[in-house]
Structure formats: structure tokens, C-alpha cells
Amino acid sequence: MTETAPERESTGDDALVEVRNLRKYYQDGGGLLDRVLGREATSVKAVDGVSFDVREGETLGLVGESGCGKSTTGETLLRLREATDGTVAFDGENVFDLDDESMSSFRRRAQIVFQDPFSSLDPRMTVGAIVAEGMRIHGLPESDPTVATAAELTVGDGIDRTVEVSVAEDLDRVVEAEEGVARVSVSVRKHEGDDETRYEASVDSHADLLGATVEDRDTDLHVEVTVTGSANAIRKKRAGDLLERVGLSADQVDRYPHEFSGGQRQRVGIARALALDPEFIVLDEPVSALDVSVQAQVLNLLDELQDEFGLTYLFIAHDLSVVRHICDRVAVMYLGRVAELGPTDEIFENPDHPYTEALLESVPRAEVAEQGRRVATLAGDVPSPRNPPSGCRFRTRCPKVIPPDDIEIEQDAFRAVMNLREEIEAENLDPDEVRTADPAAYRKEEVPGIAGENAGIVDEALEAVADGDFDTAAETLRDRFETVCETTPPDDSPGGDGTVVACHLHD
Ligand SMILES: Nc1ncnc2c1ncn2[C@@H]1O[C@H](COP(=O)(O)OP(=O)(O)OP(=O)(O)O)[C@@H](O)[C@H]1O
Q: Which of 44, 282, 287 to probe ligand 1 with, by most ligand atoms within 8 A of CB?
């Protein structure tokens, strides 16, 4: 994160995650009723060709209005959803093309924290079990083959023999291995009965976890220590340690999610994500559902954990004020594509894309000096991702849409013409209303600031509308006012420095 970046063990510009042309379409309308009614299946183009890198050790913010595809991007790149197209490389390997073993490793190395700490924790499980679940699924703790599991010891106290001690090879799952050796204390006592000599071995630490058996071979005594039911206990212990690390208490492992507040639950979600020692975490709006007073604490925790464990974050947010203090770089998404990507300071202080500008202008300003700044509000709603606009997706709302070269027209007037075209193409105007108002008067009302030849063409189109001929009206306007913003998608592939400004004004 920004303030602590110099202390981090980052390897500079190395990409840990490389997303290229990622697409995720949801199939919609393919149900039985749709077929009975003859409705065609359509696809929701939630993510429609997105490319960016997440560099090792950084926090990359992914921002944009609700519905622009941020969560889908995060979930698809983790392979929690099946991608429609594109590639994601994690540490150089294509995530969509991993064998079972590599996939299991990826599942450990890349984690997610969900937005809603209420629905993302199973209410029937204790928080200890929730945090430990990933460890259980992945067969952790793992045995370390370098840990010595056999030793010889000389037994005094009347038994003058060399005793061979061997322990189960996964002993290190039970006791903490130090420098490659699992230490278990074994004491051997001699019992002399009538007919036989019997020895007992006992283990003086972790006795609850270990069982021991003794064999009396001809001359040597063999002691075997076996591990019983240990992994669960270790996982529970680690779950408790993780709860402490995220600011809760280890003795809360047996409590249930409903016993915790929202902020505490999100801490449990973070502990769960940490349990497998990941390198990369998708944080999907991790503080959006929390009280403002708690948000800063959770953000600070995420910041500390990033430093402590060398984590890389993809931080999804719609709240730009949060992003500014957390992220090293920011990717701005609009309707399934990246509009702009760059270092956080540059995005905030000198945005290049009209959408980024509009998004920043819509953020309430804390500083009084900035409160009087002219606010160009983001007009209209995000168009449907079922049928996104051609060319630049933001062109239907863009306050800087580019007029054709051979036309002299004020920006506001051109914006109004473009809006009128949208209405005509969608056949949203009422021909009676246009006719009654008179096309020229209607134009003066709807497209003020237009004059001369341009005004004549708009009038001509409105006359066609008055006759109910929307096709001719649309064509008349298209012939005159077609813009590069609708004919050509802007280049949104990251440049050499990783930045993106997907806008024809910056071609
Ligand atoms: N399972 C699904 N089936 C069909 N459409 C979906 C599904 N999930 C999401 N969508 C649609 O995909 C688009 C992108 O949704 P997504 O949740 O990724 O956006 P977002 O930017 O994360 O928004 P939010 O901040 O509201 O979560 C939206 O139009 C949404 O309605």
C-alpha cells in the first residue's frame, strides 16, 4: 500500500498476475419459459476483453460504477467462474490450463475476501472451523520430508542398551519442527514381571496427541511413536493464532459467526484467506458493508498484513476515497472494459479519461477548498451489458464525445445531438408529440445551441420522426454526425509502462 511501499519486499515491476483479453459472458434467458415464449437467449457481457497486470507486492485498485464487471473480473481471474475467453497467467502459468496438482497449488496461493461478511461465512460452522477449512481441504499441515523421524538413544537407569526410536513420518505435523528435527521426549522404564520383561515408552510433551508402542527385540529395544488425530489439533491451533493476528482472540475459535459484529466477521474472512499462506488476495469491496468507523481499522489491518506476509492485492471498490489511500495503481472499469489504468496519484490528480474525470467529480469532496469545484455529474445510467454501445462504451454518456472533423459544433450541442440520435434509434420519441410541437421548435428545445446546416439536418430527421419513419431519421443523423467514438473501439491494451487510456482523445 502506498505509505508503506518502500519497506515491502517487492520485486519492482514483475507481474504476479497477467490478465489478457479476459471475457465472461453470462448466458441469460435460456430457461424453459423463455423457450416457450420464443425469447432468444442473450448473453450479459459482464467482462468483455479486459487486460491488466497485478505486480508483485502492489495493491491494484479496480474501480467503477456498480455493474461494470469488477466482481466478475476478480472471480473469473481466480477461476471461481469459468471464463468465456482470454487468459490469466499467475506467476507465469496460465490459470485456465492447469493440471490438478498445479490447480491445487494455485488455490492455495490465490485467495479472496468477499464483500459481505454476513453471507460469506457459513452460520453452522464455528469460526475456527471456517478458518481451518482450507487447510483441511488441502491436507495441511503437510509433513516435511526433511524432518528426522528416527534416532538412537542410550537408556540408563538399569537398562544398559541402545534403543532405536522411530516415529511416524508425519510427526512434524504434530510437533513444531525446529531446524529440520522434530523433538519428542521419550522415557523408557523397565517392568519385570514373572515371565517377561516389558518396557513402556511415554512421551512427555504433546502426550494427548501421541501414542507410543514398545517392542523388545532380541537385544535392542525398539520404541515406535505414532501420531494420532493430530492434524485437527494443529489446524485449530493455527486458526486461533490467525484469529489473534487479525485482532480477534484465540479463545473465540469455538464461537459461531452470529456472535460477531460485521467488522469482526470480516476479520474472520481475512483470517480464512490467510490460512493457506497465499501470495495474492482479491479483496472484493472488503469494507463496503462495514460501518465507516470500522472501515479504517480493517484497512489498516490489510495494510499491515500486506507488509508482514509480502502479499499482492487486487482491491475492488466503488468508493474512490478508499482506493486513494490504499492502492499503488488504479484500473478504472466501465461496462466490462478498462477505461484507464495508471499510478494512483496520476489517476486522481490528472485523469486522462473522461469517465475517470466524471467518476472523480461525483466523489463528495472532503476539503473545503475543493468543494466549490465545478461538478460535471455523470449523467444517465450505465447502458445494458447485454447490448453495449459500439466503439467506445462510454460514448453515450461522455461529455467529450468527438464530433466529425468537418463539423463545427459546440460540445454541449453535439452531446445533445448524440442523445437525440440514441432516442431515435431506440424509437423512444412519440411522433405525435414531435409533429404537434413542430420539428424545428422541438429541435430548439432538445438541441439548443445548434445552428445553420447542422440545425437543418436535425430538423429533417425530426420531420421523418413526425412521419413515424425512424429509420430515415436515424440514417439522416448518422450520415452527418457519425463519430469515431461509435465506429472504432479505443485501444485499451496496456502500454509499455502498463498504463491505459482508452480514449480517442489520447490516440
Ligand atoms: N450470475 C450472473 N448471471 C447473469 N448476470 C450476472 C451474474 N452476475 C453478474 N451479472 C451481471 O454482470 C454485470 C457485472 O456484474 P458484477 O457484479 O461483476 O459488477 P460489479 O462492478 O462488481 O458491480 P457491483 O459493485 O454491483 O457488485 C452486471 O450487469 C450483473 O447484473
A: 44
Is this complex's ipTM strictly greater than 0.95?
A: yes
Where in 56-155 does DSSP place strands (E)?
59-63, 85-90, 93-94, 110-113, 150-155
Evaluate: CB of 154 within 6 angstroms of ligand 1: no
- Per-residue pLDDT, 8: 36
Q: Is 290 in the pocket of ligand 1 (CB under 6 A)?
A: no
Using 50, 70 and 90 to split pLDDT, how confident is the model at 189? low
Confidence of residue 370 (pLDDT cuts 50, 70, 90): very low
Residues 231 and 171 sit within 8 Å (Cβ to Cβ): no
Q: What is the pLDDT of residues 257-295, one digit of tens each?
A: 999 999 999 999 999 999 999 999 999 999 999 998 899
One-character DSSP codes across 160-183: -EEEEEEE-TTGGGTS-EETTEE-
Report the pLDDT averaged over residues 447-463: 94
278 pocket-lining for ligand 1 (C-beta < 6 Å): no
Domain range 2-137+234-338, its CATH number among 3.40.50.2300, 3.40.720.10, 3.40.225.10, 3.40.50.300: 3.40.50.300
**Do β-strands 197-203 and 186-192 pair in parallel, antiparallel, or remain unpaired?**
antiparallel
* Domain ranges for the chain: 2-137+234-338, 150-227, 403-482
Measured in residues, the chain has a length of: 507
In ligand 1, the atom with minimum distance to the C-alpha of 44 is 5
With a 6 Å cutoff on the Cβ, whether 69 touches ligand 1 is: yes
